[in-house]
Structure formats: structure tokens, C-alpha cells
Amino acid sequence: MASPSRNGPNLGDNILLLPSSQATTPSATTTSSFQDEASLAPSPLNPVHTHNHLVPHNNNNSTSSPSLQPSATQQQAVNSFSPLRSTSSISSRSSTSSSSIGRSGGRNGPFSSAGAGTLTAGTTQPITAANSSLSATAHAGEGVHRGSGRPAKDSPYSANREHGAKASQFFHNYILAPFQSLQVYLSSSTRDREASASTYHPAVRKLPPWLLPHYRGRKPIIRSTVLRPLCRLLLLTVILAVLIVSTLFYSFREGQPELADYRSLTEFNWTPINPRSYLSPMNASFGENYDVLLDGHSHSRYSDGRMSSETLLKWHIANGFNAVIVSDHNSINGGLAALEVAENEEYAGKITVIPAMELTTCRLHMNLIGINETIDIAIKKWPTDDELRQTIARTHELGGLAIINHIPWSNTTEYGYELPRMQNHPSREQLVEMGIDGFEIANGGTLDTISLKFIQDHNLILITGTDVHYPDSNAYSWTILNTNGNRTIDNIMAQLKARRTSFLFDPTGTQPLAYPPENPLYYKTAPPTLLGQYFQMFWIDQTGMYSFSPTGGSCHQEYITIRWKLIGYFVAWVLVGFLLFEAARLLIVGCCWGPFLRRRRYLQKKKRMEEEGLVAGSSGLDGGGGERRRSSVDAGRHELEDQSQRV
């Protein structure tokens, strides 16, 4: 075989055609993508800027020397390849690892499994035929494993390798590369972006200069994406802490207005109810000859009621009563005030008021009826039996009666405790021994049948009470007695002491009700009050029954339970709201408002530059002056875009 001449290989030499698509070295592709068009032009010394690389190969393994000047034949061969050039060129410094061909043929012979086409000596084969031969050989190489004749598709690893390569390529092209390009884009100035525009991902390269801000370094990115949101979260935490503390203090204040304006409800505009028209006495022997319908238990504003003394009298008249015992907690003042109102001419003959007080302790509630002073012997949380006896005796001295109220309510288990509302409540037998006069056998809608039977067995006074506190309450029971038309305090008290009483009971209660209007003052303070009441749910302050004693406090042991789960959910919802706020802020400020401001600043600056002649008129420039003009335009444009990015 003739050795190649100094001027290059003859057509008789073997030429290995390597398609550019077979080059697998990343460095070659990366380097070639940034070469200018001048370096890609064919030349006698660079005949490989085509899709195929010309590699001399000697079948005889003889030593060949590189040609210094291309021969006419070589130039013709180079020119024959030139129409096959494409925009995605490959560097002339192709890696030999893509298809390594040794002089001895290598481990797998002179043609590796990477695939190659040959032009034998003395033949003139067209390039299309060479490419066809090359393609056939490449496909043959792809279908056979290296070093074996077994088809590649029979290997269980080839499919996994192909799938992994596709997944890696997808991740690199559509996730990693755009992210890295965007990161570089954000950290670059406008001038740097133009200089390295070809290195960006196509999606990033198309962005207008005012669309995204740029950060000069990593610290601004961390400050914008991490530190500032953390500062906003810290600010939100401080605001919530101040809000919780302030609203809690505000909700615990005294005298806060209620939603219902009970003071405005002073009239009950319906025909007074006549209970005798549809109810009969509980004991048939009492008969229908009665003229007093008495309420033995009621409250006004002098304790925890919501009605004034006059409104309380109107409520009783509207619900069919013509006599009432006003018994506020631990005070006779409410009864005396109601008695004074009843003496007015407006209420003459309509209703009789008997003053009383309800002794309210942690052991029992007892009405002291028909007295004219406050008996304070047993007004304390835990009065002794002797103090209760002295109180009953003092009541009798004043001509009054001692009646035990609502035993079923007193013995009901207090919520949160395994104890009754009234702890150490004396038994009925003990109360009789202390000198009690009778029992309240109906309180509200509750009928105490045990006390009723006990009264009948021990010949005690029977009395009922509404225990009314609010004007929108029903009436359920009426104590009836007969005074023969002389409905005075003394005659009523005489009938009570004589045990000549019965009662009417309606378990459904009276139907007409009057509802108070909403209090306009409540809305002024409702937001902080309701917020404070919500935050009070973070713990349970279990106090039990209120004592009504002068020292205040409760009848049960107080304990506080922290609701950690509720607090945790509250914090979680706050974080969810904060994340939604940050997402909305990113959408509105980052994606809408920020680009709008940057674009407006960009257009304003551009307009000023056009007016100053920095942008317009560049088409008429020529020579060195044109170059200086273009430099001025470029500088102005860079300044314009840099300023737009800072918005």
C-alpha cells in the first residue's frame, strides 16, 4: 500500500467517516457551540467542519505523515462535504474516545461497535453512499453487544440504561438547565446578560430586560427569598402576641356591654295571660276559689337580674301574676325598691309586692320572705349550721318565712366536677330541724316531686317561683291562694303561714315573649371583646359555682387546663395563612406590580434617551464616528436596562 504523500492522503487511502452525531464527548459539543462562524468555514488546513470527520486510516498500519498542503483531490473531497454543514457544528478537536481507531484495529478490530463507514482504495464512492454505509454499520453496531454476537435487545440492562438516560436528559434539559440559567440570569447585570446570552436556556433568553429583577451576588437572593420572609413572619408573631395580650385584658374588663339591650325592653304589649282559663290546681280539693296568683321567686337589677323594678312588675302583670316576691341575692334593697314602685297609682290594684332576699351561699339558697332588712348572719361562702339557724330565727323575729329554693338545681352535678353545685347542702330533715318553713317545689320548668311529697308528709309551706332574671323568659308556675279579695301583704303572708296554698303548672311555659333589641354599644367594642373571648379558649378556667359572697370567688376549687392542641392548630392555621399571603404577594408584587414598575421606568428612560438623541439616528452612522455612536447607544441601553432592573 502506498504511503500517504506529504500533500495529504490520496483517494486511494482509506478514509473513516465519523458522523458528528456520534461524537459523545461533552467538551467538544460545548466548545463548538460558542465558536464564531469564521472558525467554522472550510479551509485547506481545516477540512473537517462538516457532519463527517475525515480521519486517515492505513490498512497496512504504516506510518503516515500529515499533509501540509491539500492536494486537488483532497480539496475536491472537502468541497464535496461542504453542502452538508449545519448550524450545530462540532469542534475540530473531536474526542477520539467517541470512536477510537488504533493502527492495529484495537480490541474489536479496525472498526469499533460505534459504527463507521469506509471508502476502499481505488474507489470513488459518493458521499451519500458513504453515509448510507456508515448508517448501516452504525445500526449494526447498535444492535450487537460489544465483544459478543448476542442482540442488544436481549439484554435486561439495555432498556433500563436507555430509560435512565432519557430521564437524566429530561431532568437536565427541562429542570436543571432552566433553573441554573435563571439563577445566573438573576445574578447578572444587563451588560453581562447580553455578553453571555448564548449560555442561557432559550426560555430565559427570551425574557424582556424589565421582566425580572437581577441580584448582584448570592446575598441579595438570600435576603430577598429567606431573610425578608422571616422578618415578615417575626413581625406577624409580634403583632399576634400584642393582639392576644391586649384583647385578653380588654375582654376581662368590668361593665362591658351585652349584645341584648335589656334596658330598652320595658313594655310587654300583649293581653295579660289568664292561667286559670286553661290550668287547674294540682290538688283538686283546693277548688277554683282563689284570687291570688303569686310568683314566689324573682330578681331585678339589684342583683343579677336584667330588669328594673318597674319592668319586673310589668313582666309579672303580662304573664298573669297579681302578686310577686322580689328576692335579690343577699340584699333586701331590690324588694324594697319594687315595693315602692308598686305603691304608685299606675299599679294600684294590679299587683302586690312582698319584699324578700335570697340568702345565697355555697351550701344552699334560701328565700327570707316578708322582711324589711338584710339579714347578714350567714352571708358567706360556707355558713355553719348554727349560723343558718340564727338566720332562720331572725327571719321569724321580723315576721317572715324561710323557704328553701330549688333543691334539684342545688344538688345537680357541677360541670367539670364530680360534686353538686351546692356542696354540703343540708338534707330536708336537717332543714326542718333548723326551723325551715317550707320548700320551693317548682322553679322555672322544673317540678320537684320529692319536695312536694315531703311537704305533704310534714305539713310545710308549698310555694313556686319563676326565678326570672331576663325579660325574654317564660312563666311556668303560679302559686295560688285565696284572700277573699283583700290582696294585701299581710293577708298573703297569713295564707302562706296557714299552709293554704296550691299551684298551677304549665311545663311548656307561656307563649308570648318579648325579645330585646341589639345593643349598638356592643358593636363598638365587639371586635376586641370577641377576640379576647376566642383567645380565652386556649385554656379552661374551671371555677365552679359562683358564691355570691361579699368576698367573691367560687364554691369549687379552681383549676386551669391549657389546651395545647388548640394552640397548635391555631399556630398551624396562622402559618397556612402566612404562606398564602406570601404566595399572593409573590403573584401580585413579584409577577405583576414589580414588572409593571420596571417596564414603566424602562419606557420613561428610553423616551428620554430618544429625545436626547441617544437611541434614534444610529442608521446614519458610518466610519469611526458610527462606532462611537453605537458605543454610546449601547452604553445608554445598558444604563436604561440596569436602572429598570433596580425598580
From TrEMBL:
InterPro entries: PHP_domain, Pol/His_phosphatase_N, Pol/histidinol_Pase-like. Residues 625-647 have a biased composition (Basic and acidic residues). Residues 294-363 form the Polymerase/histidinol phosphatase N-terminal domain. GO terms for molecular function: 5'-3' DNA exonuclease activity; 5'-3' RNA exonuclease activity. Residues 1-122, 139-161, 610-647 are annotated as: Disordered. Residues 19-33, 58-77, 85-102 have a biased composition (Low complexity). It comes from the Eukaryota. Keywords: Membrane, Transmembrane, Transmembrane helix. The keyword Transmembrane helix applies. This is Polymerase/histidinol phosphatase N-terminal domain-containing protein.
